[in-house]
Design a protein that fits this description.
Blueprint lengths: L1 H6 L3 H8 L4 H24 L4 H25 L3 H28 L1
Helix pairs in contact: 2-3, 3-4, 4-5
Length: 107
């Protein structure tokens, strides 16, 4: 399908379809997830998040987006991804406030 090829396919779909068929494909998907999550993690660390909290939020954010991508394909609408992105922003803001508060308390 040219539209899917153009827009991309969520990694979750590839992972779900291939994990039991090929160890090589499973490991390739695992490596891709690790690299993508680390990119998000590094962005949080650059914003002065503690490494452990950056890792946790990176997994959460990436999982929400990846799950939302599957819903987008199923519903043929990006409305769910818009809602997920709004929630991600709210979670990040809340966590950022908590991190700042904890840093102030440590001083």
């Amino acid at each position: 399908n040219p539209k899917i090829a153009h827009d991309g396919i969520p990694l979750a779909l590839i992972s779900l379809e291939t994990w039991h068929m090929s160890e090589q494909l499973r490991l390739a998907c695992k490596n891709a997830y690790e690299e993508l999550i680390m990119i998000v993690r590094e962005k949080f660390i650059q914003s002065n998040w503690p490494p452990e909290e950056a890792t946790e939020m990176a997994y959460l954010v990436f999982s929400m987006i990846e799950g939302g991508s599957i819903i987008v394909l199923t519903y043929k609408s990006n409305e769910s991804l818009k809602r997920i992105c709004k929630s991600i922003i709210e979670l990040i803001k809340l966590k950022q406030k908590e991190i700042r508060r904890n840093l102030r308390n440590e001083l």
